Amino acid sequence: MISENIQKINDDIRRSAAKSGRNYQHITILAASKTRNADEIIKACESGITVFGENYVQEFLGKYDYFKSIAQINHTDCGNGNTGNNSGSSIMRSDAGGRGLNFIKKAEYTGNIVNNNNLDKKSSNNIAGSNNIPSACIFKNLKWHLIGKLQKNKVKYIAKKVSMIHSVDSFELAKLIDKFSADDNFSGNKIKILIEINIADESTKSGIKLDDAKELIYNLNSLNNIELKGFMTMPPYAENPEQNRIYFKALKDFIDFANQKNMYKNELTELSMGTSNDFAAAIEEGATIVRLGTIIFGERIYAIRQ
């Protein structure tokens, strides 16, 4: 099912990109993997997805440690060009890591719903695998993004392990990420961040107002260990995705304005917007990253707490 879903998504992205005169290869599929087990992640990887987004630090750490540990145990050569059955079926930008992946099935993540407390405990205790584990290629190629709200006291646990944080909404949070990224040796690159914009000014959502983003952008120029790449937004839920087009367009207009005014020291290129219900409209309005969960994996099944 996951493979078929991703193929359909690829087709939809190609159509939306063509409709707006864009190159579909400039669009990254981010698989929103909250509550998803390792087997589901592996199946998505087998279909070419290598960028995964997590909402909760504790759950992310469990998955990160699990895939890192099996990569160390089951090392294979990931650069020989014969590492998977991708066959170019998935839309993927080169910076998202588009090489095929080879897996030995099957592994399983058993900590779907975990407590965000007690972070000093080894997070990989939330993981259980079988004797049939994926090859080292899954970790070599896989990239993690933090897409949920990030509490300041959790920054030190993830700063060196994620390639992008989508939910920066204050200069204080950005300074902490910069501090804990100072000696980052995970990728040799600066940690990339997006400013989360509360595009519709909803009281129930995090993010900063569009009008307040300008000051934050200017302040971020003083930080040297992180790099602002653009913006993320989550517009109001709408049954008709066309209702959100105005919000997507507003964010695209804002990133163009920010670049015209040279607000940041580097060009801003990333717009993380569009989810399972409205990603086609988001792409047509300029999204470069679409965050897709249920449309890839199916409906989430939450564990019942006793």
Strand content: 5-15%
Instruction: Tell me the domain tally.
Output: 2
| Poorly predicted regions | 80-132
Structural class: alpha/beta
The average pLDDT score comes to 81
Description:
- The protein has an eight-stranded parallel β-sheet.
- It has helices at residues 2-19, 38-46, 57-73, 137-141, 155-158, 171-180, 210-220, 245-260, 279-284, 294-297, and strands spanning 28-32, 51-54, 143-146, 164-168, 191-197, 226-233, 270-272, 289-292.
- Helix content is 33%, strand content 13%.
- The chain has ten helices and eight strands.
- The protein has two domains: 1-146 and 298-306, no CATH class; 148-273, Alpha-Beta Barrel (TIM Barrel), CATH 3.20.20.
- It is an alpha/beta fold.
